[in-house]
Each structure stands twice: as structure tokens, then as C-alpha cells.
Amino acid sequence: MELLRAVLLLCMADVLHSFAIEEKEDIFRRMVCPAFLMFDNAAYLADMTFELPCNCKPEEVSNVVWYFQKNMGGRETAVLTDFSGNMVLDSSHIHVGTDVLNRFTIRMFSLIVFRAQVSDSGHYLCGTKNGDFFYGYDVDVQPSKHITVAFLDIGQHVRDDYTVKAFSVFTTFWDWTVCDRCGVRGEQRRIGLCYMQSARLHPRYRTALPNVTSCGSSAVPARLQRSGRRWKPEVAIRSCVAPCPQEDNPQEGVQAISNVIHKLGRKPWLPRVPTQFYKHPLGRDLVIACPGARPEHAVAWDKDSVRLYRSRYLVGVNRTMRVFIDHGNHLHIRRVRFSDRGTYFCWREGRLVAGLRLRVSYQAQRRRSLDDPETIYAIKAIGVSYVLVGAIFVGVHSCRCCWRVLRFSGRI
């Protein structure tokens, strides 16, 4: 019976996969590729993951090749494919700052780029390995550094539109996220990206609204791009309260064992969520990420019973902050102290999902090598100090010698 069930499941999965491919092919039959290649504008915030579907292709093409070109007509073109159209990549192994060639995957002819960086802005083209292009995108990845933050609870407001004769610059906001906590006071975020309206946009770039495109788009004329770069993305934050969803009761076996141990006089310590134990050396920086969370998700952090609200712990609120939350929803602890010990809880989309129990220990002594970064820094610092001291010594003695020569020549 188990073997029969496994065979039936495999057959059903194969049928569903075939249905998905057939449905995708039906879309391609209905969608006619344009005679003149156009570029759809798409804007994202740095560290986000975006997907670009190949909306049209000839029926005889079974595999697509994605190309990346920074500037239209440039000589440098990157090929984003394994020439099979089915590259699979584990997004959990993606790190910030890696090249786009190591941060993409292709699924059902669609290109997925993980943790996009500002350098990923440019033109993405869907085509074949022979150089035939079917569809194109103009992607604008806007930086998350120096982002403008408005806390609505204390009376702050988002920026007003900037309008002159030739163009208008404004912020287009996404929908509010869900409340990042439940049962207690939480916070909501609303991300806004820079957009520009002008009648001078390049006609080859297609936009959702006429004469409106993102500020970093190649459709913006060169003389207007400087004004667009000055306008930074915005984030609006406000308080919220949401009820917690009803949770399922624990399994009967686990509850029975817990009751027996409790009756014997010892109540077991059961974490509310999956908790990881971690030991970190004293004085080193630590960055904690919430499992399965992306920058566009609603994420919150707690230390034991203390709520780490963004109104106090968001990066940029205070320049001397040692513990802060960045715009990618990571929790940073600089120069870890013994007082940082405790359990850090992570909320994702209004649910408590994970915990990290942090222990702080003295750093074990280790031998330094000449190629160690700290050794190189120490050698440079000592060398610069000796050079400065030597320069001051030579300068003082040169001045004394000159003074003596002048005095001696005056007597003569």
C-alpha cells in the first residue's frame, strides 16, 4: 500500500508539472512579441529579491537565455543562464555583495535575482543563445543607505513632491505591511521609491503610467538624472495592534509527558519557538537574521521581554547606536558585551517564528600571522606612527639648526 501511494503521488506530481508547463505555453501562444524591442520599467529597493518573467517567446523555443547589460548599446554583456533554462539556486546561501552571476536562478523561463544590489540596475533581456531577443526590462535598484525615515506617531511627514517646469519628482509608496507583532503593540512599514514624471522620457521604455518612470531608469535624460539621484527612497513607520491567530493545541503525547514531569515537581523549559543556542566572542560585532525573512517583510525583534521598536532602534535614529536594526531587517550588535546575553526573538509577518539564545565568552587566544587583517592594520598603524614621530623630530631639529644659523650670521 505504501508503494502504491508513492507511485500515485509521483504520477500526480508529474501531471501537475505537465499542466504548469502547458499553461505557461498557452500564455506564450496568446502573447505576441513586439516587433520592436521595448523595455518594461521595474524598480526595487536594495537587498530585495525580484522576478522577471519572459512574457513572450516563439513556440519553437524550449529554453531561454537571459542577458544583462548595464548600459544600452554597451560592449559588456553578461550571460545569465546555464543554457538549459533550469538553473536552481538555494537562496539561503546568498550573501550581500556577491556578484549577480552568483545570485540568480531561472525557473519556468523567469529570471529570479536574489538580494539585488544597486550595481544590478540595468537592462535584462530574454532571448536565445543565438542572440535573438524577445522581451526586455529596465531594472532600477534604489539604494537603502541614507534612506529617509518618517515616524508618523510623533508627527513626522513624508516629503512633498518636487515640481519644476521640465519634470516632477515624487515618492510612490507600496501598501502598508501587516503588523509585525500580534497581541502587543507592533509597527507597520511602508516603503516608497523615487519616481519622475516628465514628457522628455525615452519612448523605447514602457511604463505603467504615461510619462512616469523610476528615477534611476535609463528612460530619464542624462541632464535630469542628477535631480533623480538626490531624491532618496522613503520609509514611513506607524504603530499598530493586531490580534494573534488561534494556535493549535500541542500533541497529546507531548502534553502528557509535560504534565507528568510537572507533577513530579520540575516543569521543563520548553521554548515557545524553535531556538538556536549560539556563543559569541566578547568585543566582536554580531549580525542576526530572521529565518525566511526578506527586506519587504514585516519583521520585529525582542530581547527577552524587551521590545526593540524601530522608533528607537532603527539605524540612523542615533549615530552612537550600538544595537540597531537595518532596513534589511537584520539586528546588529556592535562590540558585543556581557550585558548582551539573553534570548533574541524574531517576529515575521505578525508571528513569533524563531529565537536565538546568545552567550558571550572571552575570545580564545590565537597566533597571529603576517597575512592576518588585524596584524596588517597594526603594522600600518605602527609604521605611520614612526613616520609621524620621525617627521616631527627632523622638523624640530631643522628649525633649531636654522635658528642657530640665523643667529650666528646676525652676529657676524
UniProtKB/TrEMBL annotation:
Q: Name the PANTHER family for this protein.
A: FAM187, IG-LIKE V-TYPE DOMAIN-CONTAINING PROTEIN FAM187A
Q: Does the keyword DNA damage apply?
A: no
**What is the protein named?**
Family with sequence similarity 187 member A
Q: Any signal peptide, and if so, which residues?
A: 1-18
UniProt similarity note? Belongs to the FAM187 family.
Classify the protein's membrane topology as the record does. Answer: Single-pass type I membrane protein
Asked whether the keyword DNA repair is assigned, the reply is no
